[in-house]
């Protein structure tokens, strides 16, 4: 019985195939082309539907979507609307600021300001004061210390860009395969395009020794002025072990002149909870002092910019104008 049914099914399939072949022969090439065209249209429609899954469906669309898709679509529309509203408010705020400050200072585009900054920096390269950051002592520094130094370099460069009379900066003893270079690239956006000189040469071989002045807190001579014919050196050193006189000894080894900031001349010690007093500053703090003095020719104003009260020093005039208690504490610790 089973083989008879199987044979009957095969005959039926054979007849269907024969009928389909006859139909194809009768329809001809035009009908076959039309069938393929319809199939192609169906495929394109499927692709287009998949492409539009993430897009906003028009109101009253007949295309069916699940509740989950509709919920996500409504959430996305709310986000887009909020962003548009925020951009509109920000645009109105900037417009109001321009109207308010129109009589104070002219508004310039970011492109113009970048061009102006670049022009000032390149001018400093030929006629401005020169500052070297000696990075030849970083081989013994830890990862944490290198990260701190990279941050100081970023802040120093940022201050120099904003200065009306910038310095030209040299990073000496600095190799592109060093851990510090990698840290600078990681921490400082656009570091590879900084407008400064990077060289593997040591600062002592890059310039005549008689033009060099190594700035170190251990020097016996206070810096009085900034000479355009001199090249000032800052030791790129972050040392949590507080090794003493590292930069001073290095300058002595190369018979180079040294100088310290005139902190003791214009500032006095003030009492604090930890009884802490230090003239050791980060390189960006020293640079802020030098840059401010070069613009203002005023040491008290410059020192106020770079020496925080946490270092245990305050300006003499601030002590004289302060409260009696502060005056008494400062005079007890005053350095002659």
Topology summary:
Blueprint: H1 2-51, H2 67-100, H3 110-127, E1 130-134, H4 143-162, E2 168-172, H5 179-187, E3 197-198, H6 203-206, E4 212-215, E5 231-235, H7 246-253, E6 257-259, H8 263-266, E7 267-269, H9 283-296, H10 299-306, E8 313-315, H11 316-320, H12 324-332
Parallel strand pairs: 1-2, 1-5, 2-3, 4-5, 4-6
Antiparallel strand pairs: 7-8
3D structure, described in words:
This protein is α/β, with parallel strands linked by helices and 336 residues long. It has a domain at 110-318: 3-Layer(aba) Sandwich (Alpha/beta knot). The protein contains 12 helices and 8 strands. Strand 1, helix 4 (143-162) and strand 2 (168-172) form a beta-alpha-beta unit. The longest helix has 50 residues, at 2-51. It is elongated and about 85 Å long. Mean pLDDT is 78; it is low at 1-13, 20-29, 38-57 and 322-336. GO terms for molecular function: tRNA (guanosine(9)-N1)-methyltransferase activity; tRNA binding. InterPro entries: MT_TRM10-typ, MT_TRM10-typ_sf, Trm10_B_MTase_dom, tRNA_m1G_MeTrfase_euk. Its EC number is 2.1.1.221.
Order of strands in the sheet with the most strands? 3-2-1-5-4-6
Largest sheet: 6 strands, parallel
Task: Indicate the percent of residues in helices.
Answer: 40-55%
List low-pLDDT spans. Answer: 1-13, 20-29, 38-57, 322-336
Helical segment count: 12
Shape: elongated
Could you say which structural class the secondary elements and strand pairing correspond to? Answer: alpha/beta
Count of extended strands? 8
- The averaged pLDDT comes out at 78
Q: What are the secondary-structure elements, in order, as H or E?
A: HHHEHEHEHEEHEHEHHEHH
**N-C termini distance:** 124 Å
CATH class designation of the domain at 110-318: Alpha Beta
Measured by DSSP, the beta-strand proportion falls in 5-15%
**What is the CATH topology of the domain at 110-318?**
Alpha/beta knot
- Report the CATH architecture of the domain at 110-318: 3-Layer(aba) Sandwich
What Rg is obtained from the alpha carbons, in whole angstroms? Answer: 37 Å
